[in-house]
Amino acid sequence: MFKKNRYNLSGKKWLIIGDSITDKRHHPKTKKYHEYISEKTGCEVLEYGVSGSGFTVKESFLERLQRTPLDVDYITVFGGTNDFRLGSKTLGVFQDRNSESFYGCLHSFFQALIKKYPTKQLSVITPLPRWRESEGLWNSRGETLKQYAEAVKEVTSFYGIPCKDMYSEGGIYAKNPVFLSAYMPDGLHPNSEGHRYFHNKILTFMESL
């Protein structure tokens, strides 16, 4: 058990909207990053992760936003990998403002997020790097996950929402077989040790807000 120090998150309600990296129902034996953070800080996590979801796929983040509670202190959105690999919508461009592209869906979601939580502390985390030999670097549309991570950074910057770049600055060496074996055996989902490995980076980010 971690020794509890005083954190900004202590005693706060932290709402997280995400995919399988956040969803405790996915790989139920895997301890998630937010569980480590909750143990350290004493914050209450309201986990709204759904495996396979994203900004454009499954029950989209925008759809899920309709059922999130108002009584929270921090809201974090963590996703994008399923839009890259499973989504049928193109990446698009920053100027898009419709639901036909990833960029357009980002704009719609973050506008709605700010409208619902204008006085709360908002934050975003880019998708993690991933590597599966069978998938390769590009999706079926010739796009890379890095492009999706950069889109998240670009749109959040436009709206003034703090964003943690876990794709490029997370210390996750997705193409290294030793790293994958230790922390991310399937090339996508961190195991418990993987979540332990990177949770402090997210905690430091959250504490800086």
Automatic annotation (TrEMBL):
Q: Does the keyword field hold Zinc-finger?
A: no
SUPFAM superfamilies noted in UniProt? SGNH hydrolase
Pfam families of this UniProt entry? Answer: Lipase_GDSL_2
SGNH hydrolase-type esterase domain span: 17-196
Which of UniProt's keywords are assigned here? Hydrolase
A GO term, aspect molecular function: phosphatidylcholine lysophospholipase activity
InterPro entries assigned to the protein according to its UniProt record, in alphabetical order: Ester_Hydrolysis_Enzymes (IPR051532), SGNH_hydro (IPR013830), SGNH_hydro_sf (IPR036514)
The protein's name in its UniProt record: SGNH/GDSL hydrolase family protein
